[in-house]
Amino acid sequence: MISPEAVQQLAASPERRCLTLYFDTGPNQPRSAFKARFHNLLKGLNSTVPPADRPALEKSVARIAGHLDSLRSTNRSVLLFATEKNLQEFTSRVPVRDEIWWGAPGVSQLLWLLDEYRPYGVLIPDQQKVRFLAVRLNEFEEYKEFDTDIDTSEWRKRQVGTSGPGSPSNMQRGGHDVDKFSNHLMEKVRAFWTGLHKPIGELIDRYHIRRIVVAGNRSLVPEFVKSLPSRIRDCIIVQTSIETVTSPGEAVKRIFPEIEAWERKRESTLVAELLDAAGVSLKASVGVESVLKYVQAGRAARLVVARNFDRDVSRCAKCSAVSANHVSTCSQCGAGEIEKSRLAHNLPRLVAQQRVPVEVVKGPAAEELTRNGGIGVYLRF
Fold it and tell me: What is the pTM of this model?
């Protein structure tokens, strides 16, 4: 599992002799070909490694080769960061593009994967229980049931029995007692829901959930939502009807398309608002050159980037300043040691240093943003 904290630590690492490998291990990739694929990637890397780094590179290569030989991963991909002394591994349930990198830890694709790993909470209430699911990538990683344990047997005897001493049998008294029974039951159910505020809140915090779906009986869902405290209710993005749930996996399969639809709509709105703000005010800007300028100046409040967007940039080998254009001297420190680099290799480090929130958009929103520079930023001042 990949966490934002792990990405930040890797991006801020002072290590400059690290071998990074992004490797697709999905079912269409035979294990027998792992070693050959790895060595093919190394062929393209060797010419870029300075001679002084080769002993360290050889040790890192040996670490990764040994790890791939023993790999028993059932995930779609593996991410490895190897130095002379350590090997750090992350797994992903989404495929990655095979990539190898020498130098500072390469966290480019992690920026995109973090968006795929955004957690969602699913609450499924009914009168007998409330189910909680923590969902990532169309799969659940936590499932918990809370049972009401409400005993209604004594209510039935009192409310659907005789009307009193000496009275004839009154088993057909009708709607009045049925309504009374239902109201009494709902009072108990609402009290049960209220008692779940703390445990549900703890689960939401544990899994860093900020977006929640509530699914269940069409008439019961609004009642349940109304019973929630504002801090949970404000996270709800979708309310949907599911009358029966046979398993957590089935619930996620039915709910996830609605999450995706909500995300695509949100992303399209986000990009439209960004482009509008960049066009009519000084509150936002789009394009690689202006984004790099504002991020490095500490003026970026929020970054929006199209998934997999990348391009060539220039990087100062002395102070690590990044420029969108080819330059001979660094505008920050005046050094003449300028390296050709890629935006995707530098962007995670820059946003980690400045603690800038990042939104990665996909689909139509990504296409629209790419037509307008591929990347944009909201400004602090």
Answer: 0.78
